[in-house]
TrEMBL record:
HAMAP family from the UniProt entry: Methyltr_EFM5
Catalytic reaction(s) noted: L-lysyl-[protein] + 3 S-adenosyl-L-methionine = N(6),N(6),N(6)-trimethyl-L-lysyl-[protein] + 3 S-adenosyl-L-homocysteine + 3 H(+)
GO cellular component: cytoplasm
Name listed for the protein in its UniProt record: EFMT1 methyltransferase
SUPFAM superfamilies referenced in this protein's UniProt entry, alphabetically: S-adenosyl-L-methionine-dependent methyltransferases
Organism (species): Himantopus himantopus (Black-winged stilt)
């Protein structure tokens, strides 16, 4: 019998070392998540999924938007995050503060957040649980997954259903006219940043006197 080993491609020691390092990092990451429930709400606990057009904000931007939402919602306020999980995660880090929050999200990995998670598909903007009453949120933060008028228009239906009035929308700069048309929101001076740079310029839009100007 011939020696089959010759046909098996051997990984260079350099590649092997890199692979081992990668697996080690993955294990440490997993380990960090499980050890003493290591901040289960931190951004890294659920990695962004580009196939779902997910792009996390930078830590600074997520914190800034979360803080703005808390101030805008007021004492005992209710905040809805529509397709904006990195802001939701920042809000969860402020545990014990006087507000409540829901996340409406297509990505079912977020169901780990229990009752606060509501499965949401913008194609069916009003397909929402019965206990989600109309105009029951002091502020809605939304980041529609796609830069298209159709996506914005449908997400806008959801936002208008949920909010008592205040809206904080994050989307591309090119959507300024549509944002005004469908939600009556105006562009802010604040420039949101993402943890990975996006090709499209991103902006925030509000319909109230916010701290983002």
């Amino acid at each position: 019998r011939m020696d089959d080993d010759d046909d098996i491609p051997q990984l260079s020691s350099h590649t092997l070392a890199a692979l081992q390092e990668f697996y080690l990092e993955q294990q440490q990451r997993e380990g960090m998540k499980t050890s003493q429930g290591f901040n289960q709400y931190s951004i890294g606990s659920i990695e962004e999924d580009w196939q779902l057009s997910q792009f996390w904000y930078s830590d600074e931007t997520a914190s800034c938007l979360a803080n703005e939402a808390v101030v805008a919602a007021g004492k005992g306020g209710r905040i809805a995050c529509v397709s904006a999980p990195s802001v939701y995660q920042k809000l969860k880090e402020q545990d014990g503060k006087d507000f409540s929050v829901c996340i409406l999200e297509y990505d079912r990995r977020f169901s780990v957040y229990g009752e606060e998670f509501i499965f949401y598909d913008y194609n069916y903007p009003l397909n929402l649980p019965e206990n989600l009453l109309p105009h029951s949120f002091d502020i809605v933060i939304a980041d529609p997954p796609y830069l298209s008028e159709e996506c914005l228009k449908k997400t806008a239906e959801t936002i208008k259903y949920l909010t008592k009035g205040k809206i904080l929308l994050c989307t591309g700069a090119i959507m300024e006219e549509q944002a005004a048309k469908h939600l009556g929101v105006k562009i802010c001076k604040f420039i949101p940043k993402h943890s990975r740079n996006l090709a499209n310029e991103f902006r925030c839009y509000v319909n109230y006197a916010s701290g983002l100007n």
